[in-house]
Design a protein that fits this description.
Layout lengths: L1 H45 L5 H5 L2 H20 L11 H31 L2 H7 L4 H27 L5 H13 L5 H18 L5
Helix pairs in contact: 1-3, 1-8, 3-4, 4-6, 4-8, 6-7, 7-8
């Protein structure tokens, strides 16, 4: 009997540590992603006197985008792990994780591909690269729709199950709507804070 009790206690402690580790990983990476996105937005104001090309190839812009990209890769990898330690379903977490992966791709692309184009193209040509066209909108469409679906679905499920903070649910919905703006910084900022809040507030699995 004593052996069974000891084994059960050890298992509970191990489970608690694993749960804490997953929550910490999601929280930390989501906050870093939010801060990287916030830095990009702040840079638009700090570099307001520069041309589009100069602002996009500025070292601080490149670093912020890369940080956000790497952070959202970590969120995409770790977020489904909350299914094992909370009452949130894996399908909703996986859908939100897929949205995070698209944010990561876009952020990394801004810091590498777009920065390279800003370096090699003449300023007037680069300024026309971001012009809204059908193909440009189609490029952004998967990220926009998946982020909307993933974050709103997680918010609705979390709300109905009372499995996470209501405030986090609302912020996730706002993040999903922000994704419809197209570029990653607004959704990256809001989703980062929302997912960190989700990880800390999600009810433990019974």
């Amino acid at each position: 009997m004593s052996t069974l009790t000891t084994t059960g206690t050890t298992s509970d402690v191990t489970g608690d540590r694993m749960g804490s580790g997953v929550r910490t990983a999601v929280t930390a990476s989501a906050l870093v992603g939010a801060l990287g996105s916030a830095g990009y937005i702040a840079g638009l104001f700090l570099l307001s006197g520069a041309s589009d090309a100069e602002a996009q190839r500025a070292p601080i812009t490149i670093v912020e985008c890369m940080i956000a990209g790497l952070a959202y890769v970590a969120v995409a990898v770790s977020l489904p792990g909350l299914a094992g330690v909370t009452r949130l379903p894996r399908w909703a977490l996986s859908l939100a994780a897929a949205a995070c992966a698209f944010i990561a791709v876009q952020a990394w692309g801004f810091g590498t591909l777009i920065a390279n184009l800003a370096t090699v193209l003449p300023p007037d040509v680069f300024a026309s690269v971001g012009t809204e066209t059908l193909l440009m909108n189609l490029f952004l469409l998967p990220s926009m729709l998946l982020s909307l679906a993933g974050f709103v679905a997680l918010a609705v499920v979390g709300w109905r199950r009372r499995a996470m903070s209501r405030g986090a649910c609302v912020l996730l919905i706002v993040a999903g709507l922000a994704a419809l703006l197209g570029p990653f910084p607004p959704v990256g900022l809001l989703a980062g804070f929302a997912l960190a809040w989700t990880a800390r507030s999600a009810a433990a699995a019974s």
